[in-house]
Write a structure and sequence with these properties.
Low-confidence stretches of chain B: none
Radius of gyration of chain A: 21 Å
Order of helices and strands of chain A: EEEHHEHHEEHEEE
Number of helices of chain B: 7
Mean pLDDT of chain A: 67
Strand order of the largest sheet of chain A: 2-1-3-4
Number of helices of chain A: 5
CATH superfamily of chain B: P-loop containing nucleotide triphosphate hydrolases
CATH class of chain B: Alpha Beta
Distance between the termini of chain A: 39 Å
Helix content of chain B: 40-55%
Largest sheet of chain B: 6 strands, mixed
Distance between the termini of chain B: 31 Å
Structural class of chain A: alpha+beta
Helix content of chain A: 10-25%
Number of domains of chain A: 2
Shape of chain A: elongated
CATH architecture of chain B: 3-Layer(aba) Sandwich
Largest interface: A-B, 40 and 48 residues
Strand order of the largest sheet of chain B: 2-3-1-5-6-7
Bound molecules: guanosine-5'-diphosphate, magnesium ion
Shape of chain B: globular
Number of domains of chain B: 1
Strand content of chain B: 15-25%
Oligomer: heterodimer
Mean pLDDT of chain B: 87
CATH topology of chain B: Rossmann fold
Strand content of chain A: 25-35%
Largest sheet of chain A: 4 strands, antiparallel
Order of helices and strands of chain B: HEHEEEHHEHEHEH
Chain lengths: 140, 213
């Protein structure tokens, strides 16, 4: 389904991944799901986006704020400065939020969630040299 | 990781690929309950006669990735490819033990399961860095494909330049729509199948030969 930025009204076609980093026009992070027949309704019928949302009862897609820019994060230097704590957030014991992009880029592999909800990380775990293996506890 | 170790690892990866020291590892990724384990089991059974792991309607039944090595897929034209199949836990951005309590589990067991599931997802994400050579991305075609997790994960896979086949699963169900998935991901091949009933598996195997060969 298409999406409409709730801040500036720009519309995005199906499968548009660009909005994951926020609206390219205004940086907005909240998008309304929108049916093809409802596109440009704000302009054509002089309606506010809020009105359209109320009429169509479609859901919103909110992009989580992520300060890191993926382009620069992929360079080695940026990865070293990585804030590891944010790759998994413990909301309360048994309830976790995962930052997929960070997990996919991090050099660390989380190998065990401790009973106290600290997690044990294994650095360089996938390389075969045992010399590079370090384990440490990450305190939450 | 220091830059030289990283470079060395990259280099050895290329050398390994060059000398065929290991098969391509194909990861089966996707949200929970898309049918990843069902499909992995079918692929393994079709080509080796074994099975890989238990299927369940409880999300996160697969909490650790399972691997089956050396599966050779071939066709009548004599094309063949040998791969390792890695069945991964369902990827989500949020895991809560409450979800398991709804399936009748005790709190202790539910919390334990949530922890294991979290570790499993972290592990599966980490593997995308350099341990996986190609991806089958599974979607339940009765559900809206345009979710944040799907877009994010396909984006991560694209940024790794990994070959990807999108599988629109559960086409045996009446409200399945493979075309919705095609629309959501027009940049990738989409193969509609029923992993459960085995419908249209031939087309998937042909695509795998073409893409992962
Ligand atoms: N109707 C239908 N159900 C399926 C299909 N593939 C899997 N399922 C069901 O979906 C549920 C989740 O399957 P599973 O393979 O464990 O999913 P996973 O979490 O992605 O590994 C189970 O109840 C399966 O029987 C399919 O092609 N058609
Ligand atoms: Mg599974």
């Amino acid at each position: 389904m298409a999406h409409k930025c709730t801040q500036c009204g720009r519309e995005f076609q199906d499968g548009s991944n660009v909005i994951l980093k926020g609206c390219p026009s205004c940086g907005g992070k909240k998008f309304l799901y929108i049916q093809p027949q409802d596109m440009h309704k704000d302009v054509l019928e002089e309606k506010s986006i809020k009105q359209i949302a109320e009429e169509t009862k479609e859901q919103f897609l909110e992009i989580k704020d992520d300060k890191k820019r993926p382009e620069t994060a992929r360079t080695p230097k940026r990865v070293e400065m990585y804030d590891r704590i944010e790759s998994i957030t413990v909301i309360n014991p048994g309830s976790y939020e995962l930052n997929l992009e960070k997990l996919a880029e991090s050099d660390e592999l989380v190998i065990r969630m401790g009973d106290d909800d600290r997690y044990l990380v294994d650095i360089h775990s996938m390389s075969n040299s045992s010399k590079s293996k370090k384990k440490k506890y990450k305190k939450r | 990781m220091n830059f030289f170790i990283r470079t060395k690892k990259r280099l050895s990866r290329y050398l390994n690929a060059f000398f065929k020291k290991r098969q391509s590892r194909i990861g089966i990724y996707g949200p929970p309950n898309a049918g990843k384990t069902t499909l992995s089991n079918r692929i393994v059974r079709d080509w080796t006669g074994d099975a890989l792991g238990p299927v369940s309607e409880i999300p996160h039944e697969t909490r650790r990735a399972r691997r089956k090595e050396g599966i050779t897929i071939s066709n009548q034209n004599g094309n063949r490819v040998t791969i390792d199949i890695v069945d991964t836990p369902g990827v989500t951005t949020k895991i809560d033990y409450q979800e398991f309590i709804e399936y009748g589990m005790e709190k202790d067991e539910a919390v334990k399961r949530a922890r294991e599931a979290t570790e499993g997802v972290a592990e599966a994400m980490h593997w995308l860095r350099e341990d996986i050579d190609g991806v089958i991305y599974m979607l339940d075609s009765t559900l809206d494909p345009f979710t944040q997790v799907n877009i994010m994960l396909v984006g991560i896979i694209e940024s790794r330049n990994l070959p990807v086949i999108i599988v629109a699963n559960k086409i045996d169900l009446p409200d399945a729509s493979a075309s919705a998935i095609r629309k959501a991901f027009p940049q990738h091949p989409v193969i509609p199948v029923s992993g459960l009933e085995g419908n249209n598996m031939e087309e998937l195997y042909e695509k795998m030969l073409e893409h992962f060969g």
